[in-house]
Design a protein that fits this description.
Order of helices and strands: HEEEEHHEHEHHEEHEHEHEHEEHH
Number of strands: 13
CATH superfamily: SGNH hydrolase
CATH class: Alpha Beta
Oligomer: single chain
Mean pLDDT: 82
Length: 377
Amino acid sequence: MALVEADLLAADILAPPPPPCTSISCTDRLRVLEPPWVNLSSQPRINWKAGGVRGDCIVGEDEYIFNTFYCSPDVGETSPLAVLGDGRRPSLQRLRRADVHTEHLPQASFAELAALLRNRTLLIMGDSVMEQFYNALQCMMRRERQEAPLDDEFREFIRANAPLWKMGKRKMPPKLPQRAWSGMRMLFGRTVTFQREDVAAAAATADVLVLNWGLHYHDMDQYERDLSDAFAQLTAPSARSYQLLFQETAAQHFKGSDRRGYANGAWETRDQSTDAACTCAPIEDFNVNRQNGVLRKLLGDGRRWPRVRRLPFYELTRPRWRWHFGNCTHRPNGWNWDTCCDCTHFCYSPGFWAAHLHDLIETLRRAEAPADDHMLH
C-alpha cells in the first residue's frame, strides 16, 4: 500500500499543471495553502530597520528589491538566520518549503539562461513588477557565480545604447546592466505604458525582448489600441531579427468591496473604507483579468502576430495572495509614509522566480525550434 501511495504521489508531482482557468466553470476560491508554520501575515508592518523583513515575507533593503543576503554565493540553503537589528531572515531552505505554490513546478537556473543566450542581449522592459523579475535574475546571476566583471567593451556597449535610457516620458538611468561569463548581456528599461520611442530604442538593442505593460492601464479599449500599435511597430517587415515575448500581467490581491465576497484584486477596486490597515486577500478570477483578456484576444491563434510569444505569468501569481508586502507604511524613503498598501509586488521567493525563469527558457526554446519540430509536438 505504501508503495502504491508513493507512486501516486510521484505521479501527482510530475503531472503537468492544469491549463489556465479562463471561465467561471473552472474557478475556485483561493484559500490558504501554505503550512501553518509559514509566517506571511500582513501584520505587523514590515520592519524596514531590519532591511525589509516581516516573518517569511522578505521585501528588501531597497524598494521592491530583496536583500542581498540571498544573492551571495557563500550563503547555503540551510545557513542560519541572519540577524539585523531586531529582525531576522529565514534560510533559503525555509523559503523554498514555505512556497508550496512553486515547490513542485519545474525550475531553471540562471546558468541555463546564460548558456541559451550566449553572446546575446536580454532586455526586460516594463513596470516595477518586471523590475522585480530583473532583480531576481541579478540575484540568481550572482548566487551562481555567473556574473562577469565590467570591462571597456561592455562599457562601450552601454554607451552605444544610450537612447534606451533617454527616450520616453520616464527618462531613467540604466538598471545596472550586467554581463554573464557566457557573453550574455542583461538590461532593464522602465516603461509603464506604450511609448513609441521606447519601443524603437528597445527593438534596436535587444536580441530577446521580454515586455509587459498592463497594471497601469484601466481603459481596456486604449490598452488594445496600444498593444496593437506596439506589436505592429515591433514586428514590422523592416524590424531587425530578435525574439519578442510579451509577459502576462500579474495578479493583484487588493481587498475589494463586493458584498458577495468576490473580488478581482485590482488596485482600482480596493475598498479603503473597510481595509484601513491594508489586507491582501484571495481573489476569484472569473476571467476578469482584463489586461490578459486583451492580450489573449490580440494574439489569438498566432496568425496575426506570429512573432509575438505570450509568456505565462498570471497563473503563477494568482494564488500568491499572502506573498505581498501588504502594510508597507513608514518606508525609509518617505514615499507613502503612513498610507502604503501594496498587494501588487511580491515577497522574495527563490522558487517563484526560478519557476518563472523555466517558463521563459521553454518559451524561447519553442520560439527558436524549427518548424518541423513544432509539428512533432
